[in-house]
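Notes to self after the Tuesday call (sharing in case useful).
The group wants a holo model before anyone commits to mutagenesis around the pocket. I volunteered. Ligand is nicotinamide-adenine-dinucleotide. Logging inputs and output together so the record is complete.
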Amino acid sequence: MEKIFRTAQLIQQSNYIVGFTGAGISTDSGIPDFRSHDCGLWNNVDPLVVASIYGFRRNPQAFYDWVRPLAEITINAAPNAAHLAFVQLEQIGKLSAIITQNIDMLHTRAGNTNIFELHGHLRQATCLHCLEVYDGEIILKQLLMNHQVPKCTACDNGVLKPNVVLFGEQLPFRELQAAQDASRKCDLMIIVGSSLEVAPASDLPVLAKRSGAKLIIINLDPTPIDHLAEVVIHGRAADVLPKIVKQVELKIT
Ligand code: NAD
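Result:
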């Protein structure tokens, strides 16, 4: 409880707070992270092949066969108590932005407004041939029904790719720049549910620290930068974050 109090105190003392999230914030919404054992997502596939842009171009059917179960869970997932705690923080003026590596759109569905989606999202898909943009959720629902690679109807059957960043692709330039600006500007970064092993996203907490921010880390497992943080809490995000926000609210009222 001492760490909860300390974190609430840091939130009160800070003026520009940024949340930085990874797959771990969404596991309690039923969406597995990529590094958990026995979730099955990486079983029998090489991520660098199936979830890379090279692999996608060579064999889109293999990508869609792999992504289908994840797409089904994501379409039906709801924000959990950790996402909602970030919404409460924003509503009381204690959260300026969220930088997320997640593609699941749960921060948006929860109600946060200033979100930088570093690795893209599933709400759109783009034709690799003519660049026509489609509603991603409609495309994924079709995929769940027919198991076929989604094709463009505007051109000569170009393959549609969800607007997510695959291995080997650049991060969206404007999102990355805005996330870097927020990382330089913040005085507190709350990092939740990330192994901090995927660069360049994982560089942002270090950038925040170098720019003078304090770091809070809430994660089940240790991360490579635990030693840089003011407070490290090894616990479930959906359990820990609401307790912190409750303390902040108690002190404000
Ligand atoms: P990761 O899988 O590398 O690490 C997740 C971390 O979250 C782990 O260290 C784990 O200990 C922790 N964790 C798991 N459940 C938790 C919980 N309930 N509370 C607190 N911590 C918890 O995730 P990453 O660092 O985000 O990197 C994975 C990459 O895969 C990202 O690029 C992301 O785009 C992508 N991904 C996204 C989703 C999603 O959108 N929900 C899901 C899987 C993977």
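Two things stood out.
The chain has a mean pLDDT of 93.
Strands lie at 17-21, 97-100, 115-117, 120-127, 133-135, 160-164, 188-192, 214-218, 231-233.
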